[in-house]
Specification:
By secondary structure, the chain is an alpha+beta fold. It has a single domain, classed as Jelly Rolls. It is about 15% helix and about 40% strand. The radius of gyration is 16 Å and the shape is globular. Bound molecules: 2-oxoglutaric acid and fe (ii) ion (FE2).
């Protein structure tokens, strides 16, 4: 099934759920859980250090350095499984990607706070393609102040789904994965295109 959601302000969400066949999604979940160089990073938020409440990894083409929350991530070299998935995601979304951020939510206490993927190196209106594996989780979008009064948008991202965020989504909406009691382990991959930016 494909669900298309036009967001106020010109954002566009396209959810393919399911996207991967169940057996393929399950095999990929296990392969990534056991085969990725997961780390728990320490970040600085408002001058204070925190351990991120999830595990992460950054893979990409040479030169795709990613900076956020005071972290500088140098890309690891694409594994065969990640490279094959990149091609499938490019085909489905019609957009090119040179990097992927992986997040491993070990259970319902792991989460991602509300944010926009609006770093300069992603460009003006980035297309971001998000593949989910493992347990389903709530994915919530909230309007920024300019659109105050718009209702939040909530999706359930199931294992094997593909969500493409495009248009002006990152300007007018922040998204997050709230803590969710009882949620099982989940891996999410957000494919991105990092552009060269002046230092
Ligand atoms: O886990 C998710 O579905 C969201 C991940 C995300 O927003 C990000 O990596 O920037
Ligand atoms: Fe994000």
């Amino acid at each position: 099934m494909v669900r298309v959601e036009h967001l106020a302000g010109g954002g566009l969400l396209t959810l393919h759920d399911p996207w991967l066949a169940a057996a393929e999604a399950e095999a990929l979940f296990a392969a990534l859980r056991d085969g990725i160089a997961w780390k728990q990073e320490t970040i600085r938020v408002f001058g204070r250090e925190h351990q991120q409440p999830r595990l992460t990894a950054w893979y990409g083409d040479p030169g795709t350095t990613y900076r956020y929350s005071g972290l500088t991530l140098e890309p690891l070299v694409w594994t065969p499984a990640l490279s094959a998935l990149r091609r499938q995601v490019e085909e489905a979304s019609g957009a090119p990607f040179n990097s992927v951020l992986l997040n491993h939510y070990r259970g319902g206490n792991d989460a991602m706070g509300f944010h926009a993927d609006a770093e300069r190196e992603l460009g003006e209106n980035p297309v971001i393609a998000s593949v989910s594996l493992g347990a389903p989780r709530r994915f919530v979008l909230k309007p920024v102040r300019a659109l105050a009064g718009e209702a939040p948008v909530e999706l359930s991202l199931g294992g094997g789904s593909l969500l493409v965020m495009g248009g002006t989504t990152q300007h007018f909406w922040r998204h997050g994965v709230p803590r969710q009691a009882g949620a099982g382990p989940r891996i999410n991959l957000t494919f991105r295109r990092i552009l060269p930016v002046a230092a």
